[in-house]
TrEMBL record:
PANTHER family: PHD FINGER PROTEIN, PHD FINGER PROTEIN 7. Transmembrane segments: none annotated. This is PHF7 protein. Residues 1-48 form the PHD-type domain.
């Protein structure tokens, strides 16, 4: 490995006549770039692609993501949005941002450009997962859609306990027709079999 000088380096620079190899975990430390799309090409620090924008940040420029200072010139660790040319950020910060938002919401944090920003970041070795944002995990909001499922009567008479609920009969659980945050068994609130709705004392 051209970075750690240990054996087992399986990634070789794709530049013709370059025989430098490295481990994937060593790539970032050694300034190497791996492009996570199409051919999945990798390049050593000498042959890696450079951003198309030729500019340097003004003195005191902050990373738009972490609000910490960036280098005073464009480097491997300091990047800029190719569309607005005003948004500067650390490579680590934009990589973490990409992991968080996924390909569906990945855009420049400043100007919101999608296509040009997306393609440049891929070319520059930013891995963008093909998935929705992490906060849209299908399981994340299950608790919000679960209905109330126990009897809140002051004295529950059900032999099976407050959690038992049947489709019909005296142990059918009715939820408050106004808030649905409280429930009762028909028998526990002395409700007639013909009663279709029940309202809790709070409502």
């Amino acid at each position: 490995c051209s970075v750690c000088h240990q054996g087992g380096a399986t990634i070789t620079c794709r530049e013709m006549n370059c025989d430098r190899s490295f481990h994937l975990p060593c790539a970032m430390e050694g300034g190497c770039i791996t492009q996570y799309f199409e051919l999945y090409r990798s390049f050593c620090s000498d042959h890696r692609p450079e951003q198309s924008v030729k500019a340097d940040p003004e003195k005191g420029t902050m990373c738009i993501i972490c609000m910490e200072p960036v280098d005073d010139q464009m480097t491997f660790r300091t990047m800029v949005c190719p569309a607005c040319k005003n948004a500067w950020f650390h490579r680590d910060c934009i990589q973490n941002h990409a992991i968080l938002v996924g390909t569906h919401c990945f855009c420049c944090p400043h100007c919101k450009n999608e296509y040009k920003f997306h393609m440049e970041m891929l070319t520059m070795g930013i891995r963008i997962p093909i998935r929705p944002p992490s906060w849209e995990n299908a399981q994340a909001f299950n608790d919000l859609v679960e209905g109330h499922s126990c009897c809140d009567a002051s004295e529950c008479l059900c032999p099976g306990g407050r959690e038992q609920a049947e489709e019909e009969g005296p142990w059918q659980l009715l939820l408050c027709c106004s808030c649905a945050a409280e429930g009762t068994h028909r028998q526990c609130s002395n409700l007639n079999p013909s009663t279709l709705e029940w309202e809790c004392n709070s409502c």
